[in-house]
Amino acid sequence: MRIDVISIFPDYLAPLDLSLPGRAQRAGLLEVVVHDLRDWTHDRHRTVDDTPYGGGAGMVMRPEPWGEALDAVCRDDSIVVVPTPSGIPFTQRHAESLSAASHLVYCCGRYEGIDQRVIDEANDRWTVRELSLGDFVLNGGEVAALAMTEAIVRLIPGFMGNPESLAEESHTAEGLLEYPVYTKPASWRGREVPEVLLSGHHGQIAAWRREEALRRTRERRPDLAP
Ligand code: 6GU
């Protein structure tokens, strides 16, 4: 997989060379290139934003540098990902689907957003996904692009050491939150590991875990509970 990131704060994406995406790059499964949007400006001040038509607070990113950047970076097989609080909620399903892509291009907007014509034109030429991390506001798309990339890259086939840990975790097919987990010591500061987990009864352990997962899901995420 190849990932291009376009941002006015390319240093913000430095963590892509660390941790999991860094390991994927060294393993030859992933190539990441971060671009400074201002490389596609032509004025002395390298302007990327302007006041919104119709009035209102804040600044909007002008279309010209974005248009040139996407012309330069996109290929026939690109999926253009626009992180925005106005997007569709990003879920594990998106991570799974995007992990099969050959080329992702993140457009990291700042200010009040990117001129809509950039998104509309990209949508005519490539596949566009406007995605949100949740109902809160970040200052720009960079941190969201990092988070989405970590969720996507760990699903690239042949990357994670133990595929079973992918199957069991939260937000996968069963749709329940994960059950609580424990390790040694069995007694710690007067708190005991639940007896059943020490019992060796695999059937009882599976039943206990499913009940705890259900309890947690009902309590924390009633919208996901069966
Ligand atoms: Cl994807 N972008 C921004 N700027 N803010 C967010 C977000 C994305 N998801 C939640 N808040």
From TrEMBL:
GO terms for biological process: tRNA N1-guanine methylation. Gene3D superfamilies: 3.40.1280.10, tRNA(m1g37)methyltransferase, domain 2. The lineage of its organism: Bacteria, Bacillati, Actinomycetota, Actinomycetes, Propionibacteriales. Its main location: cytoplasm. Keywords: Cytoplasm, Methyltransferase, S-adenosyl-L-methionine, Transferase, tRNA processing. It comes from Aeromicrobium camelliae. It is found in: Cytoplasm. It is an enzyme of class 2 (transferase). This is tRNA (guanine-N(1)-)-methyltransferase. Belongs to the RNA methyltransferase TrmD family. S-adenosyl-L-methionine binds at G109, L133, G134, D135, F136, V137, L138.
